[in-house]
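Subject: Sanity check before I submit

Could someone independently write out the structure tokens for this chain? I want to compare against mine line by line before I put it in a report. The sequence has 354 residues.
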Amino acid sequence: MKVLDIAAYGLEPEAKKSFLIEKLNSLCEYHYSRCPSYRRVLDTMFGGCRAAPDLAGLPYLPVRLFKNHELLSVDRSEVVKTMTSSGTSGQQVSRIFLDKLTAGLQIKVLSGIVSSVLGQQRLPMMVLDTSSTVSNRLQFSARTAGVLGFSMFGRDITFALNNDLSIDFEGVEAFAQKYVGHKVLLFGFTAFIWENVVMKLEALGAKINLDGGILLHGGGWKRLEALSVNDEMFKRRLREVTGITRVHNYYGMVEQTGSIYMECEAGHLHSSSFSEIVIRDPLTFRLLPPGEVGLVQLFSVLPHSYPGHVLLSEDLGEILPVTRCPCGRRGSVVRIHGRVPNAEVRGCSDVHAG
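---
Independent answer below. Compare away.
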């Protein structure tokens, strides 16, 4: 069963489980043979590389490891893109190296996931960011990668902010008037939208009319949590200043780009056919059942150029005990609760991988 032959949400649970364990075991062997740092971690912490009977038995890397080490399973000459995670000033960032195969898989899978929300047609698109975000096409920040990745679903792309982060009222109004009565795509990063669109419009006592828009947004919830802003408040105050009513949050990380968990019409985040999540106790790392909150461990069949296929994050979440979502999508229903306070998951991140 080839990755690209599968619909984004096309597999029933048992078929998906079988597909994932086969592909992920294969990726473990592949990266073990090609990435010395990955091999060192597995040898030290997991006793080597052995076929696992289920997802929980697969060896994992803490996502923090990518902030301290460059992990590759291909020759550097095969790297076509280097992506970096978001980070506040002074923080280390992850550097993720993509070859042509991995980048292509990410695009194809992301397309299938997003098309389930937007449909197959490319829509007029407004990016709630600045054009300078995409100025460097060789070294991608998380924002750059996000804007460029989601831009493949749009046309006539307009940026809502000037490069000094002020709102381009003239450009926004022109876009709104041009596509009045039409479905349009809006994209941006959650915290960035809050601080540079919502709060600035509120401070100015101004509004912009984007009520025909479908907003896809993600990232930055840790920052908003510090401001006591939750999902309901974000959507309500965004609606008050822009008229936007169709809002889809997504969860993902640069270390597994393409394998995002998209919010459906019922307000649930779903895993796709190419990814999965399990939850572990933050202290014992034992597997937790649906409905219990713990560390989010993520699986993706997409990473071939680096060993990012099984990662233990520093996020807290749970799998909801929902048999079938009203939206009709297959895939686990996930809720993310934010970051572990002062997160630093111990364990194999302590192993020198160099």
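---
OP: Matches mine. For the report I'm noting this point. The domain at 106-251 is CATH 3.40.50 (Rossmann fold).
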